[in-house]
Write a structure and sequence with these properties.
2,3-Dihydroxybiphenyl 1,2-Dioxygenase, domain 1, alpha+beta, 3 helices, five-stranded mixed beta sheet, single chain, 9 strands
């Protein structure tokens, strides 16, 4: 087997509201929707949104780390759109510059890039 991609699945309380947030605030594009299950994409990244009614799993509490080429301009874009930001972009000793945003259901998305070598 050769694994090629994966998709994070976030439980959400209201699929319509979640889709609106991911598209209008976070800048994802709606990729598909089948009833109460949908996918949004940004570049090669796909996040699936699952209404609570499907699997009855707890809403929120999920996390995904999204690796990017840069994060500062994206941070400013979503800040201006009212995103709920948990942390600001910061360089970390593990060689990444990243920040965290929280969706309306409490799912966390970390956006990070490698820090420039000095």
């Amino acid at each position: 087997m050769n694994a090629q991609q994966s998709a994070t699945v976030f439980q959400v309380s209201n699929l319509d509201a979640a889709l609106k947030h991911y598209v209008e605030v976070l800048g994802f594009k709606e990729d598909f929707r089948f009833g109460e299950y949908a996918g949004v994409t940004m570049g090669e990244v796909c996040v699936h949104l699952c209404a609570h009614s499907i699997h009855q799993r707890p809403v929120g509490g999920g996390t995904v780390c999204i690796f990017c080429d840069e994060v500062d301009s994206y941070y400013l874009q979503i800040l201006a759109k009212g995103a709920q930001l948990k942390t600001k972009p910061q360089d970390y000793p593990y060689g990444m510059r990243d920040f965290m945003v929280v969706d309306p259901d409490g799912n966390h998305l970390s956006f990070g890039c490698e820090t420039k070598a000095s």
